[in-house]
Structure formats: structure tokens, C-alpha cells
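Methods: example folding runs. The two proteins below were folded one after another, and each record is reproduced exactly as written to the output file, sequence line first and C-alpha cell line second.
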Amino acid sequence: MQVTSPADMGPQPAAHAREAVLDDATLVARARDGDVRAFEVLVCRYQGPMYRLALRMLSSRGDAEDVVQEVFLTAWRRLGQLRENAAVVGWLYRTTTNRCLNIIRARRPVTDADLDSRESVDAAGSPERAAQVGEQLIALAAALKRLTPEQRACWLLREVHGRSYGEIAVVMGTTQAAVRGRIARARAQLAEVMAPWK
């Protein structure tokens, strides 16, 4: 089984149409029974969000692709260990976040900003607006790198991926109060850095 890059994903094949409407718990149960197609639907459903999370945490397309590949291969191998079939999304977020945190802690600080700004630039319209959006993205990426890895993960999970404080606490292995504190500190730092863009 191969996890494709989110950029390589095209329209879903017709064979996946029926599985695509099934809920996560049903897909996990089928995948546990050896249904590779059901697992592929889960991969198609969640590799995009996991890739975007990893990319924003690591600022490296290659590292993000590697993390997503590892996460889904691990998920395939460990489906039998998942206690609740519906818990697969939280498990994917937790595993992706932990792998990213491990990579951040292992590497030396980097200063370059590797942003995937094509989507925003294309949507921006005029060249002047595109340049401004590009500068904002570079400033935001630099500001995110100044956060602690834990603050960055909490902020991304909340602000970009819309996870609840309770879900983030489970992903991070901490309390909701700690999550709220990390997000508040991250928001304060980011607001200070991004103030010129308001």
C-alpha cells in the first residue's frame, strides 16, 4: 500500500464511491478485517489534513510527506490495537503531531521558510495582492517557528484544523488548561509579530 502525496490525488475512483460515504468506524472495522479498499478511503479522507499539519509544523514538504507516509503505514499495521473504531481521527492527529515534535526536537533550528503559498497567491488576484499575501505567509511561517514546538502544535490543531481543546489535550497528552495556556501564549506572540499586517 502506498500513500500518495496530496498534490497527486485526483478524483476518487468509482470503486471508492460507496466506501467514501461510510463513517470512519465502519471503514476501520472493514480495514481490520483485511479490506484494503476501506483503508484506502480512510487514507484519501485524512492524508490531506495530516499533510497540512505536518507541513506547517515542519516547514518541509519532504519531511511532511515522510511523516504522513509513516503515520498511515503505522496505522495500517496497528489497526488491531485501536480500542474504538471511531477514534481513528484522534489517533492520526496524535501520531502525526508526535512524529513532527520528535523531528523538531531532533533537528537544529533552521531559518529558511519553505511555504506552499501557491494556493494563496493564485487566490489573491492582483500581483500586488499576491505579493502582500506572500509576505504575510512568510511572516507567519517565521513567527510559527519562534513558538515552542508544543505551542505551535496546539495552535495549528486549534486554529487551522479546528480541533477542540479536549481533543488537543488528548493529542498532546496534557490537560485542557495546559492547552489553553499554550494557545493563549501562541496567539499573543503571533499577534505581536503579525500586528503590522492588520
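Second run, written to the same file directly after the first:
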Amino acid sequence: MNAPLTFYTHPMSRGRVARWMLEETGLPYETVLLDYDTTMKAPEYRAINPMGKVPAIKHGDTVVTENAAIAMYLADLVPGKQLSPPVGSAARGPYYRWISFMGPMEQLMVAKASAAKLPDPRMAGFGTEQELLDTLESAVKDREHLAGDHFTAVDLLVAASLSWYLQFKLLEARPAFTQFATLHRTRPAALRAEEIDNALLAKK
């Protein structure tokens, strides 16, 4: 990988998930710190992400936003790390499934955080809260990995999401959730990423 890799973030944002993924890859990258409502909304950054949100990465001329897309993109850059199952393998389906499942989960968590009335389950992408939580619990219960027999980007994304929502008490603290989150949040790359972002936050 010869093209430069640039990471746009804020230490208190969803960028913490992307930072963890970057640290898992072992790839060299430059960090560009942005501030809410100022540099994050400036024309220079909107040229990278018109939404004016972080995280984003730029790899050569390629821009990727959204944590799920960033994780999958980075995993494919380092096939030797086995952070994504091989295309065509039986593990590829669960890999896509549970990464995508974090979208409806976030919709539910944001609705709860804003004290909004939950929408009709027939319209909501997450169905009902009970259905979503039961489905996710059945996926992670008594399991270390969601796609195959070793750690991949889907484990990272699900563990990071569980950890985040448990921290803010938006998610019911079922044992299966806390166990899965704790298992992966103690990985060296996760601890390294947290240390980097905490140090950057202390300087703010």
C-alpha cells in the first residue's frame, strides 16, 4: 500500500471506532483533528465529506466515510491480517449481515437517546426494540466471533457499538452483550487506540 492514508476525526466521536480499526491494520496513517461546528464544517473538509461529519479516511484519491464502510475498506487493504473473511467463504454472509445490523441498532439507540416515541415497527428498520435486542443477543451469546473462527472487522464494530451504548446506559446490560464487548475491547489495538484518543482529548 503506497498511497498515503489520512484519518479525519475528533477524539470524542464515532471516529474512535475507525481509530481502533486503523490500529488493527498496522498501516501508517496521518491524523487530522477537526472541531465541531468549525473546521468540521469548513469548505476544506466538506470537500472530503459534504456532511461535515467524522470519521472519514482518504486513501490516495479514495474517500470513505461511515464506520462500517471504513472498517470493511481497511480490512480489505490488509488481507494478511485476516480482518475480513475471504470472498465466497461461508463466513462472508454473517460478516456483511452483522456489520449492516449496526445501522438499525444505531437508529434505535438514537431514538432512545432523544426520548423520541419509537416509530411503528412496520416502518422502523429495527422492528421492535425487543426483537432487535433478542436477535443480537442470540448472535453474540457464548460466541467470540461472528464470522468465522477468528477476529474480524465485524467483531470490532459490534463490540464497539455494544460498549458505547452500554456506557451511556441506552442498551440493556445483558450478560451476553457485556461479555462480547469486554472480550474485544481489551485487544491491544483497541487499548492503543483508546490511549491515543484519550491523550488527544486531554489536550482539548
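Comment on the second run: The chain has a mean pLDDT of 95.
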